Amino acid sequence: MNIILLGPPGAGKGTQAKLLQEQYGMFQIATGDILRAAIKNGEPLGLEAQKIMDDGKLVPDNLMIRLIEVKIGQLKPGTGFILDGFPRTVPQAEALDEMLAEQHKSLDAVIELKVDEAALIERVSGRFSCSNCGAGYHEKFKPTKTSGICDACGGKEFCHRPDDNAATLKTRLKAYQEQTAPILPYYRQKNLLKTVDGMAGMEAVHQLINAVLKAAKSTAA
Ligand code: AMP
Q1: Residues 6+ apart with CB under 8 A from 91
Q2: Which residue of 78, 85, 113, 183 sits 20 to 30 Å from the alpha carbon of 196, by its own alpha carbon?
Q3: Would the CB of 58 count as within 6 Å of ligand 1?
Q4: Each residue of 69-126: pLDDT tens digit?
């Protein structure tokens, strides 16, 4: 299956994508992660994107579209994908349709995670990750089992995303409302959009998404 997870920053797209990847073997394509890796590795894409990301704004469509085209083209035949962070504008959604048609692929579902704005601030400001393996945590909702030690690799150093602060979050939410939310009617019209209550716990949201995917599968069959 090929799906898109949509939702504002902190809605839980990355967490849910990882759970789906584990369960179904679909491949998570997280544009934010790809850009952060490009910054870390000093790649030209990273140099171009860094300031924009730090300001909480959106990287230009042409760069993102090219990036996704390459990533989707690299998937092994038969491997489904979960897009996490793309598309973020209507032109990106239109370009995705075109490239999928060219690659004889299609979307099975677009899942919107709906979360109250106040919860987003709490979710985003508390998250951190292991500097060594990248495992993600949250001060309140998902702390490490032993304080100061990564559950996954035993690492002792952690970092916060530079754009996970209250001021930048404001700009990111504005970008979501103004540039990304107009995608919702685009997919609703195509009968692909399903909205899930993202306020529930991590496992409950996963089950809600599973139910959507089951329904999409049986419609396709
Ligand atoms: P994320 O990790 O998905 O929250 O993305 C972090 C930042 O990367 C965003 O605030 C944007 O600056 C940039 N970004 C990620 N995906 C896209 C995209 N599809 N279009 C434009 N900018 C993006």
Answers
A1: 61, 65
A2: 78
A3: yes
A4: 999 999 998 899 999 999 999 999 999 999 999 989 999 999 999 999 889 998 998 9
Measure 85 CA to ligand 1 centroid, in angstroms. Answer: 6
Instruction: Output the CA 146–ligand 1 centroid distance in Å.
Output: 31
How confident is the model over 179-197, as pLDDT tens digits?
999 999 999 999 999 999 9
Entry pTM:
0.94
Helix (H/G/I), strand (E/B), else coil: 194? strand
Q: Is the CB of 52 under 6 A from ligand 1?
A: yes
Ligand 1 close to Cβ of residue 19 (< 6 A): no
CA of 25 to the centre of ligand 1 (A): 24
Residue appearing with tokens 């504002």: 8
Q: Which two tokens stand for residue 157?
A: 């150093």
CA nearest 209: which of 88, 112, 78, 95? 112
* 184 C-beta closer than 6 A to ligand 1: no
Whether residue 115 contacts residue 6, with contact meaning beta carbons closer than 8 Å, is answered with no
